[in-house]
Amino acid sequence: MASKSASEFNYCKICCTNYTEGKRHVYSKKHKNTGNRIINKFITRISDGLKLLENPLVDDDFRDSGRRFWCYACEIDVNVHQKSETVLLHYAGMVNHLGSLSHLWKLKSFFRLNGLDRTLLPQCYVTQEKLSGFMSASSKQKNQILQPSTSNCQLPPWLQDDAVVIGPTKQDFETHLASKKPKLPENRVGADYDRSTPVSSDWLPEFGRVWTHGRRLQSKQEFNRKWKKKER
Ligand SMILES: [Zn+2]
Ligand SMILES: [Zn+2]
After folding, report:
1. If you measure from the C-alpha of residue 177 to the centroid of ligand 2, how many angstroms do you get, rounded to a whole number?
2. Which Pfam families does the entry link to (predicted)?
3. What is the domain range of residue 63?
4. How many domains does the chain fold into?
């Protein structure tokens, strides 16, 4: 038996193997089983997105935002979710892809070329009608979320009328400053001095004998004399 040349070998992406039986390969039991297993896996993968067709989910939870899925028919990696301004349209990337005309076209050819069960085809794409319903409901939800968040941001909290007072008031602060002032003894010299008394420009304080003539002892004696006189 003559050995086969390289051109007689074909590669099947579904079975991940070379085959030599030509077009008959897609009718083989192994190929059909593998193909339908792949399609069922695909249907399971997209089921979470299809559940949201009637009732989209839009929020600011970006934890799952980087998720991707592989489309066997188009042979491309697709973003599952779609970021839009400050929100995430959950499964919008997936639904948009499944609703695109290029996906439908490639899906049909994928089924035909691989001899797959055509009854599964309607579960592998989104109709144009369902896609537009999903997209308009998503953008409606997005606008509702963005509207309250922008109206809340119009004024900073300290300029809003019904703002909650944060921290001490100005009066509290002044009271605090007054309490921190050092307290002077009540009977200190000059405590009873009347600062409202009008004085002329040639006024000088009375220094007593310390600054004039005589001994310091004399000034003490005179002070005590005056003090006794005052007490009487
Ligand atoms: Zn195959
Ligand atoms: Zn696709």
Report:
1. 72
2. CCDC84 (PF14968)
3. 29-146
4. 1
